[in-house]
Structures are given as C-alpha cells and as structure tokens.
Design a protein that fits this description.
It is built from four helices and six strands. It is α/β, with parallel strands linked by helices. α3 links the parallel β3 and β4.
C-alpha cells in the first residue's frame, strides 16, 4: 500500500487547508483537532493514531524518536520537512510523495524533505516485533 493510502491523522501543526485539500482528494484524514486532542503530548497523539489504525502526518520529528527509540507502537509516520510553511508548499510535497513513493508495509516512517523544487523522500521500515 502506498503511504498516503492509509487512513491519516494530521498533527495540529498541519495547516487546516492541507487537511481540507486531502479530504477533497478523497483521502481518509482526520486532524488532531477533529479528534479533540489539540495541545496533547506527541506520545498521546501517536498512541491515538495507532489505536485508530492511522498514520501520523506531521512536521514534527519527535514522532520518529518516540516510535524508534521510545518503543511506542505505530502504524506509520509521514514527516514533512520543513514545517510551518504555506499549505501550497506542503501540498506540493504531498504530490511528490504520491508521485514517487512506492508501497510500504507498516510500521514505517517516511521523511519528505523539500529544498527549493526538489523533494527528497526516505522510507524506513521498523521492526515488526514490538
């Protein structure tokens, strides 16, 4: 399955216009704010996403640390770098992921880093024994 085909949970740092655009494209996406979790710790968000069978969409690198080094269970994390940029910039990064990322198996972390017009995508699969 491709990374953006999974149900998504958008962290509160993902602009609402990005969430709306993903919904308009038919994506199964909920935001942390939709879930009544605004201001909650990242570990709570990661656990909630896991319980709901959702991949976390975020600008925050702490999720990968929690998953790999903290041992938190997770389905997937899509980390968009840099963060807090215009929705158009972020949607262009998402389009690059859709165009070039292949199938992934959970648990996985995908990091998409954009510099100018170039988007570098790295995927790391986590060990399944948790």
């Amino acid at each position: 399955m491709r990374p953006l085909e999974f149900p998504l949970l958008a962290d509160e740092n993902i602009h609402r216009d990005v969430v709306r655009a993903l919904l308009a494209r038919g994506k199964d996406v909920r935001s942390v704010l939709d879930e009544g979790m605004g201001g909650r710790d990242d570990v709570d968000v990661l656990r909630h996403a896991h319980r709901q069978g959702r991949v976390v969409l975020t600008h925050d690198g702490d999720f990968g640390t929690l998953a790999y080094h903290g041992g938190e269970p997770f389905l997937g994390i899509i980390h968009l770098k840099p963060g807090h940029i215009s929705p158009t910039f972020v949607l262009e990064m998402i389009a690059a992921i859709e165009a070039s990322a292949g199938d992934v198996a959970p648990p996985f972390v995908l990091v998409a880093e954009r510099k100018d017009a170039l988007v570098r995508i790295r995927v790391r699969c986590a060990p399944t024994a948790r």
